[in-house]
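Record minuted for everyone:
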Amino acid sequence: MTRLTGKVAVITGGAGGIGRAAARIFTAEGAQVLLVDLNEAALQEAVQGAGSNQASYMVADTTQPEPVQQYVNTAVERYGGVDIVLANAGVEGVVSPLQNYPIDEFDKVMAVNVRGVWLALKYAIPVMRSRGGGSIVITSSTAGIRGSNGMSAYNTSKHAVIGMMRSAALECAAYGIRVNTVNPAPIETRMMRSLEEMRTTIVGGDTTVEQTKSSFARRIPLQRYGDPEEVARLMLFLASDESSFCTGGVYMVDGGTSAGTVV
């Protein structure tokens, strides 16, 4: 299928699990894709994994204005413009009670998860406007609609980008630019491996990482983690013209997590 033929997509966090899955799906659907991340070796693997000469990469710090402006300009120089921005770069921070949460770690989470998204929108919107519109998809989380113990920075950041999305959706509607969030539950990615390990260390005793993962999965009504491709397919819908009347929305991809508590 070619739902994104003629479209240019920028994917931040392109070296991670969801970013890689989106790259594979977007290029298969005809898009030209620029992947952005800090890890060059992982970016090279992601481009190879996309299996297409329609993908390339750029190493950039998404928290700083100059690199963000540069990756937007690079997409224009290589592919002619920007039609889709997948603001997907994110970090989990540490698991710690709020009163003990390290200030530098809080600042890092907010810089990547909030400032980085804001900068992506700030510099991409004018370019997208000149193309006559497009779609911005921001990766939030189930943590963006509820709280959780020990995750004050991450939860705050994921709530924040929903507010940012709603403001941007209103501002950009006149330009034909749609803005939405995708909110995953636990997904089979590096981030969840990190959270499982941190939670296991906190619990201590004979608890294993596998037991911690099983505990997380049991809280999901579908009783499993999601796959990165399951998130990317929702991103594809929102990036494509099939979602032409969708803007300002919070789209869950969470196995039923947001519906309530499993008893």
